[in-house]
Amino acid sequence: MSLSCNALGWSVKEKTIVSDATLKVRTGEMLGLVGPNGSGKSSLLRMLAGIQKPSSGRVCLGETPMSNMRQRDIARKLALVEQHANTEDRITVREAVELGRTPFLTALRTWRSEDDAIVASALAAVDLKGFEDRLWHTLSGGERQRVQIARALAQAPDILLLDEPTNHLDIGHQLAILHLVRGLPVTSVIALHDLNQALLCDRICVMEAGRIVALGAPSEILTEARLRDTFGVCGHFMTDPFDGTAIIRFHSARTG
Ligand SMILES: Nc1ncnc2c1ncn2[C@@H]1O[C@H](COP(=O)(O)OP(=O)(O)OP(=O)(O)O)[C@@H](O)[C@H]1O
Question: In this protein, which residues make up the domain named ABC transporter (predicted)?
Fold first, then answer.
């Protein structure tokens, strides 16, 4: 399922946070969202997820305007992993992940064994087998982050939005999560600070001061000029001798 927004904007009081964001994420595409701190990535993701109401413009899931959809119907199609997600202190890991099945439960469609299987597979996907009975507040930052990703996977979404999903993770789990998302049959938008990780995406969208300033294939978008102008760093592209892929080596703008 595709995800699009047209002329999307959000202002708080007099301050414009996001303006005129127009974007179409194609079915099955993995789109990296990059930009400096405060450029509006989380705000855009929250609007795309239907959590933040835009001040202007609209979001469509496939061809359907999100404003015409009930929250439950949105949650059956789309999951968001927020940057600083929190949850009830006394909840166990299993209960936190089970919340992902809530949009599918009704008086007639109660919990089934297939829901248990989905929850178990989501926990296994993020390497949290054996953590089922642990209480949320006893988990480390990276373990909590993986629980939130498992909760989103348990939603079995067509569209998965992730806000810096790797920021608390050790390098092994960072790579595992990125490759997991890559391999899922979903349309994804993933906010990332690590531009080498962003190179793994199909396309990259760059935000600057609340605006989308570039959108396209990683090699076209992440140029040395872009690194300098948007991020204020010198970066040089090199070829990884191991597999021939591009990697960026950074220097500070002053010393580069
Ligand atoms: N509720 C709010 N009220 C006022 N300002 C806000 C609010 N939410 C976000 N902002 C401001 O909007 C700007 C964009 O914030 P946002 O969190 O979307 O940026 P970001 O690109 O995700 O940043 P980071 O990389 O630091 O996570 C920031 O300057 C932030 O301070």
Answer: 3-234
